[in-house]
Amino acid sequence: LLPAGTGRFLGLILSRAWIRPTGPVIDMPVPASFNDITQDPSLENYIGWVWYEKEVLLPLRWLQDDLNTRVVLRFGSAHYYSIVWVNGVQVVEHEGGHLPFEADISSIVQGSPGIPCRITVALNNTLTPHTLPPGSIQYMNDKTRYPKNYFVQNIRFDFFNYAGIHRPVVLYTTPSVYIDDITVTTTSSESVAMVQYQVSVVGSTLYSLSLSLRDQEGKVVATGDGPAGELKVLNPNLWWPYLMHKNPGYRYCLEVKMQAQVNGALLEDVYTLPVGIRTVHVTSTQFLINGRPFYFHGVNKHEDADIRGKGLDWPLVVKDFNLLRWLGANSFRTSHYPYAEEIMDLCDAYGIVVIDECPGVGIKMPESFGNKSLQHHLVVMEELIRRDKNRPSVVMWSVANEPASELPPAAYYFKTVIAHTKALDPSRPVTFVTDANYALDRGAPDVDVICVNSYFSWYHDPGHLEVIPLQLTTQFENWYKTYQKPIIQSEYGADSVPGLHSDPPLMFSEEYQKAMLREYHSVFDKKRKEYVIGELIWNFADFMTNQGTTRVLGNKKGIFTRQRQPKSAAFVLRERYWKIANESSCLPPIIESHTLFLK
Ligand code: GCB
Fold it and tell me: Where in the cell is it found (predicted)?
């Protein structure tokens, strides 16, 4: 990794015939954020360009068969703006973290077997009013208070702006004619389901496609051919959420086989895709999965951990799923950006329902509602939907979190983003998460589900738990009477410093966090009989933020610590979630440690 000055000088650096390190060269793990890896505070808070470089030797057979093999370099995500070179040739440029991008590098690496392939990445974590999330650079020009050229990056979101290559980087191959994309949607009735598919092939127009769908025993239940069609499945095993069925997360395996003749050679590309058969519908009071009312009892999360920041961390990912299931949580929102594909795979497999949020967080400045931002937002939604459209766990898209949706341009902005999202994926409802006043919010008319965040007795009336019942009831009634749409309490919570106790409960103690939850829960219990369809605690775990006077080594609203130890509030929530799960007629799987709540 080579920190290389500020972005202002990038043009200069690139125009040189040979790029040389302009800063210290250090070892940097991938995937990981670079911020917390060293003892150097300037790297922790670094804004600007950093460089990564690595040499790899590619298998000989990838390089010799140059006509028919396509070599691809893929990044799971890199934060924020990336330029990638292979052997000094620029192969891809990508704007935005949290989503994958890739480049066909065949023409660069083929024809030179035995020569190492040098992958160079320039990354810039600077956020502007037009990036997602937006941010701005503020130069401090008062020479009596700040050194020359001093600047800070202002952000309007509450998590540390970790940067680096956050997800795995892989090299893979396909034939030169290959399956580029598959789109699957499902419909079902009691005894028969239809799986609609569309397959796009790139590289030739002369190819054949055959499809087969297997159940979990490996039995072929339907077959098809051609680039579009329908597979009929009799007596389908539906994909059910965790705790809604004794066998949640059932997925069939769709195998798509493409064959093409190219210059006398037979090329074959085979792609397998897990397919969950399920439907999603929204009424004015309910969220239906497979026709049954679904109540979101879940969490908001972050990709955040000690040392590796936002870098993918398998042990942590698996630990978090174990904690979610321990908690009896059936869902989460990917606050405030798309999570790693590895996490989404586990949601599909375990039946954890997802509200899939794009990085539209902190859209507060008027200039962030202009055409430039809007166009970028549309592209980000395209990338997100392309990545996650086939996931049964994803039941709703969230296009933003707490934007300044009362500003006049927000009306056109959200109408456009939501319409675009629906055009790309007509099968799922769309929302954004609001903290605006119900009477002033200009985006709410376009959402399918109202998702509202509130922090009564915390940011408003701090310390006054007694105001919660009235204020929360009023909040729900105002939204419902205005829109007649189901409502999710998409955030509520209180900070607690683990180990800090106080009775009567005082703010920041574990007791206060518990008491606040209980006040909210009593209102949820009344309103979920009407039109409230979910509650998502803020937050699953403590997480790092920018430094500030209201943050003690980060945000402490977790019900688990950052190291995933439960605070008292976790037990309150666990008891509640299992109780709610048991109210449904479908028995959850009996796991020994949960029997206490199942009796
Ligand atoms: C919110 C934000 C979330 C913050 C949270 C808080 O409304 O959506 O990103 O972390 O409040 O704790 O302030």
Answer: Lysosome
- Check pocket membership of 545 for ligand 1, CB cut-off 6 A: no
Residues 6+ apart with CB under 8 A from 131: 80, 81, 95, 96, 376
Per-residue pLDDT tens for 81-135?
999 999 999 999 999 999 999 999 999 999 887 889 999 999 999 999 999 999 9
CB-ligand 1 contact for 158 (6 Å cutoff): yes
Whole-number Å distance, alpha carbon 88 to ligand 1 midpoint, is: 42
Question: What atom in ligand 1 is closest to the CA of residue 401?
Answer: 8
Instruction: Measure 306 CA to ligand 1 centroid, in angstroms.
Output: 20
Pick the residue whose CA is nearest to atom 2 on ligand 1: 158
Give 485-544 as a DSSP string.
--EEEEE----B-TT---SS--TBSHHHHHHHHHHHHHHHHHHTTTTEEEEEES-SB-B-
The Cα–Cα gap between 539 and 556 comes to 8
**pLDDT for position 377:** 98
In ligand 1, which atom is closest to the CA atom of 435? 7
**Residue 456 to residue 474: CA distance in whole angstroms:** 12
Burial class (CB in 10 A: 0-12, 13-18, 19+), 482: middle
Give the length of the chain: 599
Closest residue by Cα to atom 13, ligand 1, is 158
Q: Which residue carries 């970790």 as its tokens? A: 162
The CA R_g of the chain, rounded to the nearest whole Å, is 25
The 10s digit of each residue's pLDDT in 305-326 is 999 999 999 999 999 999 999 9
H runs (alpha helix) in 254-396: 314-327, 341-350, 371-388
Instruction: Say which of 102, 303, 357, 402 is annotated catalytic.
Output: 402
The single residue listed with the structure tokens 């929360």 is 472
497 close to 555: Cβ distance less than 8 angstroms: no
- Cα–Cα distance measured from residue 161 to residue 47, given in angstroms and rounded to the nearest whole number: 10
Burial of 551: CB neighbours in 10 Å, binned 0-12, 13-18, 19+: middle
- Whether 406 is a known active-site residue: answer no
489 close to 532: Cβ distance less than 8 angstroms: yes
Task: Give the integer Cα–Cα distance in Å for 479 and 530.
Answer: 13
